[in-house]
Design goal:
224 residues, mainly alpha, 8 helices
């Protein structure tokens, strides 16, 4: 839903935008999760090889984000790969005997990212802005993800599915922007409008903070 929402922004005539805000938000989330874990063999800890593999996935995503020649397809692919890596990593935590860990940190981080994107979007008919119906649809997708995260009976499969759906929404929404710069509603790398780069810095800072909060959230349940 995030991707669909970002792709709904009206475009300028004959222009194309490469937007890496969603990828950068996922990188911030992934780093926050990695930095919050404890390496070891006890329940709730993570094996060193899982941390190393996850670190490699983050580095690969950072390389794509920093590549000035990367296409939107490259960025979207990197974002999808990193989201998959986040889910795989969180599911690699050591379990105690007779326990099943349900970890919604990735989903909560994506919800924070989606809300940050939505709150920075400008509704209107000009290039770089977003249509009201797209915002309404996006809010519905965020609400659906929040409902899964708050559901104490949700399984890990439910949470992973909700995270994947929300990540797909980020990419689709992102690809809707086209004003001749790397801009989504006035943030990211955009320099042609009011407050572009400053807003981007503020969004990045908010994502790091929210991702850090999300990275601490894990609940464990007994296997049924």
């Amino acid at each position: 839903a995030i991707i669909v929402f970002q792709n709904s922004a009206k475009l300028g005539s004959g222009e194309a935008t490469v937007n890496n805000a969603a990828l950068d938000g996922l990188i911030a989330l992934a780093n926050a999760i990695k930095n919050a874990v404890v390496i070891g063999g006890d329940p709730g800890q993570y094996p060193q090889n899982a941390v190393d593999t996850f670190g490699g996935a983050i580095s690969a995503a950072q390389t794509v984000s920093a590549n000035a020649s990367a296409t939107q397809a490259d960025i979207d692919s990197a974002a999808t790969a990193l989201q998959t890596a986040i889910i795989v990593f969180q599911n690699s935590a050591n379990l105690g005997s007779g326990e099943a860990a349900v970890n919604n940190a990735a989903l909560d981080g994506l919800i924070a990212l989606a809300n940050a994107i939505k709150n920075n979007a400008v509704i209107g008919g000009d290039p770089g802005q977003y249509q009201q119906n797209a915002v309404d649809t996006f809010e519905g997708a965020i609400s659906a993800a929040q409902a899964v995260s708050a559901n104490a009976s949700a399984t890990q499969a439910d949470i992973d599915s909700a995270a994947t759906a929300l990540q797909a929404a980020i990419i689709a929404f992102q690809n809707s922007v086209n004003d001749g710069s790397s801009d989504i509603g006035g943030y990211s790398d955009y320099t042609g409008g009011d407050g572009g780069c400053d807003a981007g810095a503020g969004l990045a800072g908010a994502l790091v903070l929210l991702a850090g909060i999300a990275a601490t959230r894990m609940r464990k349940r007994k296997r049924r």
